[in-house]
């Protein structure tokens, strides 16, 4: 789909071009149909897709099916159509309709709004979110400066936060919450961006048919030979770098090449005040990550790791771009300082530990740089105040672009975090649909006092309860002496194995994993390496080495802010010594997000893939059915019809 009005042909949804009659619009709202049978829903989505009607209402929820082709649905004429519409329900379903509903509700009700966009990788979440941002900027008369900053940050979040996967050529590998701040006259006053759970493992490994983050390939294919030489990169071929060579090393696919993305990144980074020495240091860190991956260790030394002689150029290049003293990196990667009594002694690391140490450093550099990029984007957005509207912020419209529920053949801690987030959002979804249903029944004079709904509160408690929840057990096992993945799994099963939510995993030993009965179905999780993933360990010697770097950006990323002396009686400003793992950080972020959303009126967009082959004009029934189950759409229909199942038209 087109991402801007200027890129699309001028076509109005009202002129009959899209959607086409008669099959496309016979059931634009599934919530008004006389049945909620899954087969009926599938048939209607299939029929509408065949008529290029990619949007379908399901009560208050919009289903957006990815057509995998460009469509003229986002022109200025269509923008104006929804802006000027007297009755949005009378218009064809559209992402602009959802954005318009949120904007109108903010003005009329005086409450902040949030739009939750979810779906599988490749379902079109980012495009749908972009279209709604386009509409909100269109109706809000955004100042040119703020417009540039808002739109200009996209290449950065895509370049450093998106990657090619087997399902999607431009897959967001993090969750994202974009908040547009409106002043009392409903003009956009500013914006902010929060991201969640960046997939760090992709920095050091990517599977067949997949790529690491786009920025690596854009640098190699787009930068000048002179810059690559300055960055000590020996080749412009991705296959020359171990972290990239294991995956797809060609272009990501689609219309934008890596060289084109490089040009966009140069423009976008300049707009965010990345220039001169700071910009050079940024690309030095990206080059340093690539060179780190080429540092190999002698396989013959399993107990006392040593860098292979053939890796000397990679080590020297890495030290140069990271601003490290010559000879310091190899030592920090293969040895660790320990305090024994009153003395500091060096301990050799094993071959495996040295490899883990190298990869942990690469992931830490990249993830900290990504966070810094987001901080800089927010600074730029805060500075680009709407010059026509200097007044204080009144309300917010937030757009959540979050990873959808994941069920793979092999699932690990990353999938648990993603699915936990979806469980929390599903609870909001169900509660919102139920509240809207009760309001509709009240308006119709229907007695709905005895109607209730089944929520997923028990499962959420099983995961997040203090002390006894699965995540708390994981954090505890990370700090107990001789804690292990097997010990963690045994404790989880002992605590929760008889409740029906967490069950034995078939086909593996009882210490190797478990299954969880999520709202979308049973997911089996292998628990190997969960403790290491949660600890996200990085050798303290490497942290100190980074803090003494001559690369000012790298030094800043690894230097903790100095603790502020507390006022009398105030101890909260001291840094806590309690262990804080990856899941603890993510849970805290998720709690903050849900707390923000709970204060907003909510709108939902469920993005569906029409097929797994990314082909236009193709609907695979099994793919749609899978997403109907994992998206909660069928459950929403059931909740909406619990007390009033028969809906017959009358004159």
Q: What can you see in these coordinates?
A:
The protein is of the alpha+beta class. About 45% of the residues lie in helices and about 15% in strands. It contains 25 helices and 14 strands. The strands form four sheets. It has a seven-stranded mixed beta sheet with strand order 1-2-14-3-10-6-7, sandwiched between helices. The chain has a three-stranded antiparallel beta sheet with strand order 11-12-13, covered by helices on one side. It has a two-stranded antiparallel ribbon with strand order 4-5. Helix 3 (about 95-110) packs across helix 4 (about 125-140), helix 6 (about 155-160) crosses helix 11 (about 260-270) and helix 18 runs antiparallel to helix 19 (about 485-495). The longest helix has about 35 residues, at about 350-385. It is globular. It starts with about 35 loop residues before the first helix and ends in an 11-residue tail after the last helix.
Question: What are the SSEs and their pairings?
Answer:
Blueprint: H1 38-50, E1 55-58, E2 61-66, H2 76-83, H3 95-109, E3 113-119, H4 125-139, H5 144-152, H6 154-161, E4 162-163, E5 171-172, E6 175-182, E7 188-196, H7 201-204, H8 214-222, H9 225-230, H10 242-245, H11 258-271, H12 276-293, H13 312-322, H14 328-334, E8 335-340, E9 343-348, H15 351-383, E10 395-403, H16 413-443, H17 457-464, H18 470-477, H19 485-496, E11 502-504, E12 513-518, E13 521-526, H20 530-535, H21 540-547, H22 552-558, H23 582-598, E14 601-609, H24 621-631, H25 633-640
Parallel strand pairs: 2-14, 3-10, 3-14
Antiparallel strand pairs: 1-2, 4-5, 6-7, 6-10, 8-9, 11-12, 12-13
